[in-house]
Amino acid sequence: MSKGNVRRSLFLEKNRSIKEQEKPNQGFLTRHFKKIYPLTLQKSTSSLSLSSLSLSLSQNSNDSSLKDYITPLDRQIALSLRLIAPPERREVPVAIPNVQKQPSSEVGNGEVKRCNWITKNSVKKFSTALEPNKVMASLDKVYVEFHDECWGVPVYEDNQLFELLAMSGMLMDYNWTEILKRKELMRDAFFGFDSNAVAQMGEKEITETASNKALMLAESRVRCIVDNAKCMQKVVRQFGSFSSFIWGFVNHKPMIIRCRYPKSVPLRTPKSEAISRDLIKRGFRLVGPVIVYSFMQAAGMTNDHLIHCFRYRECLSLAQTQYMDAVPDININLLY
Fold first, then answer.
1. Residue whose C-alpha is closest to residue 242's, from 233, 255, 253, 230
2. Which of 114, 143, 186, 276 is 20 to 30 A distant from 234 in Cα terms?
3. pTM (predicted TM-score)
């Protein structure tokens, strides 16, 4: 045998003995890893994620039966994996406060919300109408202005209350739009609704007023207004003013209905029925419960604006101011 072959055989034997010495150590380490961390670490096409490995290590390390097999090197490996792994995120439910929204009185484009019976067509017709529709546009305009400026505002002056009572009585034949269109003509015909002057109207004046085609008032309606003026004079002599008499039914402060929908607005109430009975006993005419309630709405004795309408809170403020001016010697909270 040549020297080269002898040297090669000695090298192979030496390597074989080294591998045989390393095998027990490798088996010892693998055996301890399986006892401590029973994970099957095999070659696979799918890699084990670091977070799942850390979770398995942390769960297995809590087992008291495996603590005796943990070496300092194993502890360092497990600690390193825990530090590297991202912390588990927990979703904490956020409590949303129950905030009650107040109804807003504004809509887009700077417009304001009105009561539902004031439609968009009612508001737009008088601003965009052409000449053939001028009359119809004018009718809608006066109705919107009446809603925005007068309806629901408390009235304490006798002549104004008499005017509203007379116009409410005309609801038997016309609607508010048609009545408001002829409001100035009625003021001229009935002396600005001065109850003293109207009560003194004679037969000739009554006939002339009824024959006025622009007013479109039957003679029976004209006589009702004259008779009511005479009844008002009796009330004034007894109570000092018609305002003190009529507002006394609601304790001199408006009633707050707080309606959200038009269907919630009443046509008559026990209060209007009581006022109607009293007025009828005193000789007034065209003062049924429904007409009286319409009068109460127009005179601000009740605030029936829907709560989302921009006039709802405005009328509350106006009611408080005008009430304190009309009855300064009584201090009550008007709004509540």
1. 233
2. 186
3. 0.61
